Amino acid sequence: MKFLKTTEIVKVPENVEITTKARIVIVKGPRGTLKQNFKHTKLHLVSDKEKKEVTVTLWLAKRKQVCGVRTIVAHIQNMINGVTKGYRYRMKLAYNHFPINLNIPENGSFIEIRNFLGEKIERKVRMLEGVKVFRSEKTKDEIYLEGNDVTLVSLCCAQIHQICNVRNKDIRMFLDGIYVSEKEFIEED
């Protein structure tokens, strides 16, 4: 069965400006600008500046294609939250015997991980553009990753987590690693 027309509307806050052109969405807000390309979809995106809303429409689609409408709406809402509030991920270092040494240079463009499970090798994770990493001042083994784009911040967290995977050992016993402990907005309402 095909659905004739599926429409979702995204309300835009007062301090945010959205422009759509050829399925490319640009969101400008107080924290910066985000741009995302949706050319891989068959959706119709229209931004209305007077009503302060974005309309996402899909014509003659099956049920699985209709799911894409809500996905694009969620992406746009994440972009709006990013340019108004920003995203912060908190990661904790977990170790049992060998303490993990973490070095973050002043510019925060990458992190160096040493002494993971007592290994001598140095692991480096380069941060993506727009993501800042810094140590927690209150807690000893904790780092923060901040940025406007939730996909880039979460991707950096995943890269840090994956570089510290325990291999060739029983993961029920060796729980060492760097894990995401909390996700929050930088600026609360």
Automatic annotation (TrEMBL):
Chain coiled-coil ranges: none
GO biological process: cytoplasmic translation
Pfam families (alphabetical): Ribosomal_L6
Gene Ontology cellular component annotations, sorted alphabetically: cytosolic large ribosomal subunit
Matches recorded under PANTHER family: 60S RIBOSOMAL PROTEIN L9, 60S/50S RIBOSOMAL PROTEIN L6/L9
Identification of the protein by name: 60S ribosomal protein L9-RELATED
Keyword set, alphabetical order: Ribonucleoprotein, Ribosomal protein
GO molecular function: rRNA binding; structural constituent of ribosome
Large ribosomal subunit protein uL6 alpha-beta domain boundaries: 12-86, 98-177
PROSITE patterns linked: RIBOSOMAL_L6_2
Family: Belongs to the universal ribosomal protein uL6 family.
Keyword rRNA-binding: no
Domain of life (superkingdom): Eukaryota
